[in-house]
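Thread: Newbie trying to understand structure tokens

Hi all, I'm a second-year student working on a class project, and my supervisor (Dr. K.) asked me to get a predicted structure for one chain before our next meeting. I've only ever worked with sequences, so writing a 3D structure as a token string is new to me. If someone could post the tokens and maybe explain what I'm looking at, I'd be very grateful. Here's the chain:
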Amino acid sequence: MADAPTLDFNAYVTRKREERSGGLATGQNDYSYVLDRQTRATFESAKPIELAVASTVRMWRQVWRGQLLGNAVKVSERQFPRIHGLGRECAETLGIATPTLYIVNNPHLNAATYGTDDESFIMVHSALVDHYSDEELRTVLGHECGHIHNSHVVYLTTLHYLKVVASAFIPWIVYPALIPLNAWSRRAEITCDRAGMLCAKNDQVAQRALTKLVLGSRKLYDEFNLEAFLEQYEEGKDSIGRYMEVFATHPYLPKRVLAMRMFGESQLYRRAAGVGDEGLSMSDVDDRVKALLKGDV
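---
Reply by user tm_fold:
Sure, no problem. This is what the structure looks like when written as tokens:
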């Protein structure tokens, strides 16, 4: 594989501004969550974020990419063609190039996207392939493709390695960048849950795929009552413990499921899934999700 061009944060920001003014793809798509877009826009003028991203981009090509890919198997038409086909379908749905996919030996149900916006790839854990149906995999791959589609990748990679630094060294050094990136990440997950739904075209499958991912067990899911779990969330959402979410990169599972259901009522989703032409506007959906994430719903 040919080396990607050297990147720096200032060039990245300049290019993104030119894309917005020139009418090229901006990563701000019809289904994306408005607070995801707004938060990302503030990063361009945030010095701690600028420094963190610049450092990550420099280290990415030199060290971390090789470490991540050392034991992974690249997916292609000849290698795991079923997974390759699912990734291609998701990319076509969202209007992006087929992503580079790798399978890594890992017993945990998970997938993640790393790299930069110019060179990104999706890592899929082997356990996910073992435990998920094609429909459920399409949801997860669609979610990860959503990160690529919405220009999340460089910030996700930065967040990943800031967490590594925080655990290995003095955490307060990276907090000025880590806290705002965590807040943005929770909003970005809402956007990409929507991307997964658009690729699955089945809201029940998408909710099931997400729930199994968070539970980490297919067997547990067979006995899991989602509605009872949502009721449990209602009982505890006003407790002091809810403030611990500020340190999380993902919203709590009940919030994500409820936000997915709200998107499922949108005209955009209903048309894409072929279930009707009527539905909520995306501004109405986003207003409801804002209230949900504040704990007002």
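A couple of things are worth pointing out once you decode it. Residues 9-293 form one domain. Strands lie at 73-74, 100-104, 111-115, 120-125. Feel free to ask follow-ups in this thread.
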